[in-house]
Amino acid sequence: MSTRREAVREALTTSSGFRSAQDLYADLRADGSKIGLTTVYRALQALSDAGEVDVLRTDEGEAVYRACDTESHHHHLVCRVCSTAVEIEGPTVERWAAEVGAQHGFTGVTHTVEVFGTCAECSRA
Amino acid sequence: MSTRREAVREALTTSSGFRSAQDLYADLRADGSKIGLTTVYRALQALSDAGEVDVLRTDEGEAVYRACDTESHHHHLVCRVCSTAVEIEGPTVERWAAEVGAQHGFTGVTHTVEVFGTCAECSRA
DNA sequence: GGCGAAAACGAAAATGGTTGTCAAAATTCT
DNA sequence: AGAATTTTGACAACCATTTTCGTTTTCGCC
């Protein structure tokens, strides 16, 4: 486990929302780090493979990452203005997805669920 | 409404799963059409703006399209092998997403839900 | 049918996020 | 210390998508 990867992990942890690889690279450089973009991508890939961060895609196809509090399966409620994300759990959805899959004879059913909105704070502005 | 756009729409309609722009381009060329890649992209953009097709992103960030039977809000159960998609509705999820958003003070809540699995036919193989 | 304006087309170039290459630098092992 | 291994980062390569721009087609109108 290298220092660089730790740096990326920390940059992610200190942020409350989803960040893109390019964002993180910019953050790290701004903090004086001499890290390279390639390394940021590699670190994110490794962290994501290890299941230590969640990944999803923006509507524009950009990959965004987030270090989550829990490693168990969960979803996110993301503010579309400030990108802050709240981790949410939904036994309801889990059950629903499994049922729907089973009804149609599908096996190995998984699902992706993301909820977007404008958070209370950003709504006020 | 041009002929080209119709061709793209039809190429989509005759397919039961999600197809990428490049896939459709290949299909159309294989059928002898002299359509350009640019036009395929433009047609898909237009159709998607008009709400006539659904768009989502693969894990690799590629945009995939599908002409759906209903124009109302719905989700998909997609086979991860043959990419066939079944349209599904879920009052349960709709309600859940709205509730979760409201509980955290979010406004203008929307959501994306996709369910993946291996369809009955592909499971057999 | 002919004409001109406007919309649609398509080839090629530009863009932008992401991945591959490879030599240099850092770390580990002995 | 010295060799072997891993990590790193500058740069080039990729690839889906978008932009550019000159050409072609379509449409409304005479």
Features:
homodimer, 125 residues, alpha+beta, three-stranded antiparallel β-sheet, three-stranded mixed β-sheet, 42% helix, DNA-binding
- Poorly predicted runs of chain A: none
Tally the helices of chain A: what do you get?
Answer: 5
Mean pLDDT of chain A: 95
The global form of chain A is globular
Order of secondary-structure elements of chain A: HEHHEEEEHEH
Which two chains form the greatest contact, residue counts included?
A-B, 35 and 35 residues
What share of the residues of chain A lie within helices? 40-55%
How would you classify the quaternary structure? homodimer
Structural class of chain A: alpha+beta
Order of strands, widest sheet of chain A: 1-3-2
Strand content of chain A: 25-35%
Distance between the termini of chain A: 42 Å
Alpha-carbon Rg of chain A, integer: 17 Å
According to DSSP, the number of beta strands of chain A is 6
For the largest beta-sheet of chain A, the strand count, sense and barrel status come to: 3 strands, antiparallel
Write the layout of secondary structure elements.
The structure is a homodimer of 125-residue chains.
Chain A: H1 3-13, E1 19-20, H2 21-30, H3 37-49, E2 53-57, E3 63-67, E4 75-79, E5 85-88, H4 91-103, E6 107-118, H5 120-124
Parallel strand pairs in A: 4-6
Antiparallel strand pairs in A: 1-3, 2-3, 4-5
Helix pairs in contact in A: 1-2, 1-3, 2-3
Chain A binds a DNA duplex (30 and 30 nucleotides) through residues 2-5, 20-22, 34-39, 41-42, 45, 60-63.
